[in-house]
Design brief:
The structure is a single chain. The protein is α/β, with parallel strands linked by helices and 330 residues long. It has two domains: 190 residues, P-loop containing nucleotide triphosphate hydrolases (Rossmann fold), CATH 3.40.50; 66 residues, no CATH class. 30% of the residues lie in helices and 24% in strands. It starts with a strand and ends with a helix. The chain binds adenosine-5'-triphosphate (ATP). Adenosine-5'-triphosphate binds next to strand 1, strand 2 and helix 1. This is ABC transporter ATP-binding protein. It holds the Pfam family ABC_tran. GO terms for molecular function: ATP binding; ATP hydrolysis activity.
């Protein structure tokens, strides 16, 4: 696998009446070609903002405050609209949370696909028709629905039609922002299976945002856990699940039912994430952390390498090894 995306030190601020709010704080993220990367975290931790920043789709009051997004060797942060336009859809596409918001309600699916292809210089009517039929059938929808308006499709079909649109040019990277969250559990699972199947068949990489740990557990190769605008842990999904290196990852895991294994009572994480305008001076998770010790309240942890994962937790600082030993017993 080769590196497709390298995000380094990416920060995003929202300009608010009480000053700038940092919603994404110096995030590093790399994605290999064909890889499935999951991003999880509680509501408001900055997942969607990060995705929009990667795709360079932020609009005011949000803006990139620092960092780089190197995609296929080019820094997207430094590009203007004209330079970004040919990359979007063709090389990198985005699937939003709700197709109802992303699709135009007064245009047939056929016309929306045609618009996207025409915007990328495809003029041949035959080519447009053939490709539209092809992508719709790829996601398991009969071609007759090219004549449908979005509201004539079920929720699951609409999300599929949106994914088909994102695949019009077989991009190398598809960014998905909770594409299954509006669906019932059965439709959610079947759409996840289909996304995974398409990804393996067509070879594109995926960045998939969700707040549901169990949803990504079987589908992602690597997992990033976000909390209060920062990345807390990033590494192979199996390792994060089998031995989470960050107490917050452990808390998230305990808050969701496991598909396999014995039944265990679910535990929430007491407390709430900090207000982004008033961050704790030390570790951002410290006020809620069951393993906190004195240094956590005053020291901002770096990202530490723990086997194959990186974790932002002082338990992995060589100076606090003794605390890690104690933590293991709790
Ligand atoms: N328009 C805005 N103006 C000011 N702050 C904003 C705005 N939009 C988002 N934010 C801030 O950015 C933070 C991150 O929001 P974001 O939508 O990226 O989180 P998220 O993790 O994707 O949440 P969810 O899972 O609920 O979609 C929010 O907590 C909020 O404080």
């Amino acid at each position: 696998m080769s590196k497709l995306l390298q995000v380094t030190g990416l920060s995003v601020t929202y300009d608010t009446s009480s000053g700038p709010v940092t919603a994404v704080d110096q995030v590093d993220l790399d994605v290999q070609s064909g890889e499935f990367v999951g991003i999880v975290g509680e509501s408001g931790c900055g997942k969607s903002t990060l995705l929009f920043a990667i795709a360079q789709l932020l609009t005011p009051p949000a803006s990139v405050a620092g960092g780089e997004v190197i995609f296929r060797g080019q820094n997207m942060v430094a590009m203007n609209a004209g330079e970004l336009a040919p990359i979007r859809w063709r090389n990198m596409s985005v699937v939003m949370q709700s197709a109802m918001n992303a699709l135009n309600p007064v245009k047939r699916i056929r016309a929306q696909y045609a618009d996207a292809m025409k915007a990328h210089g495809i003029r041949s009517k035959i080519e447009i028709r053939q490709r539209s039929e092809e992508v719709l059938e790829l996601v398991g929808i009969d071609r007759v629905h090219l004549n449908s308006f979005p509201h004539q499709l079920s929720g699951g079909m609409r999300q599929r039609a949106m994914i088909a649109m994102a695949l019009l040019f077989t991009p190398e990277l598809v960014i998905m922002d909770e594409p299954t969250s509006a669906l019932d559990v059965v439709a959610q699972r079947s759409l996840m299976l289909q996304i995974k199947e398409l990804q393996q068949q067509l070879g594109f990489a995926v960045i998939f945002v969700t707040h549901d740990m169990s949803l990504v557990s079987h589908f992602s190769d690597r997992l990033m856990v976000m909390y209060a605008a920062q990345e807390m842990e990033y590494g192979p999904t199996r390792q994060v699940f089998d031995s989470p290196a960050h107490p917050y990852s452990r808390g998230l895991l305990d808050a969701f039912p496991q598909i396999r294994g014995p039944r265990v009572p679910l535990q929430g994480i007491p407390g709430a994430p900090p207000n982004l305008t008033a961050m704790p001076p030390g570790c951002r998770f410290e006020p809620r952390c069951p393993l906190r010790f004195d240094a956590c309240a005053v020291t901002q942890p770096a990202l530490y390498q723990v086997a194959d994962v990186q974790a932002r937790c002082l338990l992995h600082d060589p100076d606090h090894r003794d605390k890690a030993e104690l933590g293991r017993d709790r």
